[in-house]
Amino acid sequence: xxxxxxxxxxxxxxxxxxxxATSYSCKSSKQVEAKKSNPSxxxxxxxxxxPTKYIEPKTEPEHNVVEAEExxxxxxxxxxxxxxxxxxxxxxWGGTTKAGIDCSxxxxxxxxxxxxxxxxxxxxxxxxxKKIALKKVHTGDLLFFKTGNRRNSINxxxxxxxxxxxxxxxxxxxxxxxxxxxxxxxxxWLKAFHEARRIL
Length: 200
Hints:
alpha+beta, endopeptidase fold (from Nostoc punctiforme), two-stranded antiparallel sheet, elongated, Papain-like_cys_pep_sf, signal
């Protein structure tokens, strides 16, 4: 082998080394660039083909309405329970105690037990609250009557304590029998009935 041939082989060997090094370097840089240029593989999420379902959030007013209804119901129950403590007490005009009580006194004291102040006279009580139809009354509502010889003005009041079998039961102070529970379906009371009102 001559010297020039030997040099040629050495030269070709170095050329091969340089080519291999360059190829490897290019391949590595391309892989790095590929990774850098495709960040979506890491950060993107698969989007579902299903339509988004709208779930209506629960609002506070619903809870507030329910709580308000429970408070009214509770007040009515306490007022009725207080009034029933007077059952059997004799009638006394202007009375407000178990020694004797009149119809408006019974209602006045029963509502007062729940910090609700009403006028002392039945015809003035009938100016408070909201007038309602009989078919819409609840326990705790008031019934107003025009009785006896004074049918031109309200002179009697009762508190609804129960509604059963299409009949309304109310507690009141009767002049003859004292504090009793009567039925609106009784002919006398049905004829004397004037209006129903809601205070609560």
